Amino acid sequence: MIPKELFKDKIYVIKFGGSIMHTDHEKACFIDNVLFMKDLGVKIVIVHGGGQFITKRLDAMQIPTEFKEGYRVTTKEAMKEVEMLLGGSINKDLTMNFNQQGLKAVGLTGKDGACIKAKKKLIKKGDQFLDIGNVGEIEAVDTHYIDLLLSNEYIPVVAPIGYDAEGTTYNLNADDVAGKLCGALKAEKLILMTDVDGLYKEFSDASSFIPELTQQEAKAMIDSGIITDGMIPKLNSCITSLEEGAKSAHIINGMTKNSLLYELFSVKDFGTTVTQ
What we know:
alpha/beta, Carbamate kinase, 8-stranded mixed sheet, two-stranded antiparallel sheet, 8 helices, globular
């Protein structure tokens, strides 16, 4: 028998990446895992991405796609499409899938309940700062609305959209949002679901897999250039969540069937764990 007292009322923030949202089968497996976790009493917050869907939409609209230091360059023209997809169709489709399975879910963006305030993000590269358009850096997180939903057994499904005092809308990195929410909620775990097994010192070398590291080691890996591109926001998210109050952070392969359950029951060397 599973000891439910180990899980009851623990908060898990799960980032469901766009790279693993391809098919209805994958979404159904993910939702089944969440249903099992909810039965154990876990309080769950979902932050979703949607990068591949955005790229397809921008291609269709003949809007160029460009990435700098792992972040999507987002023009004002692109921002309209990004918000429509992330806050609209992707968010509402995922929310509906939860509700259809008997899980009470509420879809929202960082604009709802004044949840996520942001400012323009500038990327440092060498001695320069790169302007990447309507990409935001999180300034403040107000969890009151999310706390209200969790206390009433709802699952908040959060799209990574923020805003500032002037009314500018920002595209936020979903990993950043998950990390900040996790820290603000003082969650038990941050779980980042992606399409690789975790961190490697060298991705082409399976023997260089990193099953566990401390947040200090994680910072050193970023500073030394061992971690690059899209893994930088993920590892920064883990570091942020731990610094701001989370107990542990995990990067796992969401393409593996029942990956959330492997993480839930701490299967040895499944994914990369970042600890305090």
